[in-house]
Design goal:
Elements: E1 8-10, E2 16-23, H1 27-35, H2 37-43, E3 50-56, E4 63-69, E5 75-86, E6 90-97, E7 108-117, E8 120-128, H3 132-140, H4 143-170
Antiparallel strand pairs: 1-2, 2-8, 3-4, 4-5, 5-6, 6-7, 7-8
Helix pairs in contact: 1-2, 2-4
Length: 171
């Protein structure tokens, strides 16, 4: 898997990964695609992977849990809780992946900011890890490539959602 060039990834500190991508959609649609199970199932994960469980309790203190199935049938469980919800501009949550030996048992803090300008939305996600070792393990896991492909799929889903929204307005 490769980053298609649409995702920018930086490591501004020894514990952080910052990923940024611009989408041709208003931020309310991007926010919904990040928080509504029926939309997440359309795009989450690399190509050929499937989000088979998507549980979201979108409230402060609420939890989320995803199960992603790989083409070989193996599954990865991701989970966390919501700390801040400012629809449609910002989402702060914890995240853990207990199936990855290198990061098992650790929890990261994820700050997602959505900035809209002229109908396009820049999604910036800052993931802060407990240590440099765990951040580096996440980087070496292929996360960048998986996120890049997932965001490519998100862009495709958003194009469909945006046209459906436009059709509803035009009627």
């Amino acid at each position: 898997m490769r980053n298609t060039g649409t995702l920018t990834v930086t490591t501004p500190t020894d514990r952080e990964i910052v990923m940024s991508r611009v989408f041709d959609a208003p931020r309310r649609l991007v926010f919904d695609a990040l928080t509504r199970p029926e939309l997440l199932r359309r795009w989450y994960g690399p190509r050929a992977y499937h989000l088979v469980v998507c549980e979201i309790d979108l409230r402060i203190g609420g939890s989320w849990r995803y199960v992603v199935r790989a083409p070989d049938g193996s599954e990865m469980v991701l989970r966390g809780s919501y700390l801040e919800i400012d629809r449609p501009a910002r989402l702060v949550n914890t995240a853990a992946n207990d199936d990855c030996d290198a990061v098992a048992g650790s929890e990261s803090l994820v700050i997602t900011v959505l900035d809209e300008y002229a109908g396009r939305t820049t999604l910036t996600s800052t993931e802060r890890y407990p240590s440099r070792r765990i951040r580096d393990a996440a980087l070496n896991s292929g996360m960048e490539h998986g996120v890049a492909q997932g965001y490519d799929r998100l862009a495709e889903a958003l194009a469909t959602l945006d046209s459906q929204s436009s059709d509803r307005v035009a009627r």
